[in-house]
Amino acid sequence: MQPWQGWMVSCLSLAISYAVASLTPMNGWIEFWLRGSFYTAYQIMLVAALLPCGALLARRHHKRPRSLLAMTAGGVVLGYLAGLIAFLLHPLAQPDGARLFLDSIPNGEPEALFAFVWFPVKLLSWLYGAMTGLSMGLLLRIIDRSQRRSSTHEA
Description:
mainly alpha; single chain; elongated
């Protein structure tokens, strides 16, 4: 698999995930917790973090194929990590972003640290990751089957 194919599969998987999220209450749930420009900034940061992770997951799958369950579990982990990154960095897109960014860093208090670690769970970033991993696994299976068929017909 060429690197551009991994990026393409990652883009398509994210598009599928966002299509599903727009048909379900997922985006409304996130918008309940983050409003206005914070919502937009979070979504952009989440996609920016998930896209390269998805490309990496696609390349790893091609080297050693994984089951749909493993791809979904990998997507959950990557979605959660992307959610942490997005939650940490999304204040930077605001007018007073540097101050908001520094205020958002947990200051060592257990409650603040727990809230920081829990927020990506509450914002469903893990579910975006799971949907991305699942759709990526399905797309990669389709690609693998079509490549096997074309190599069988050539032989």
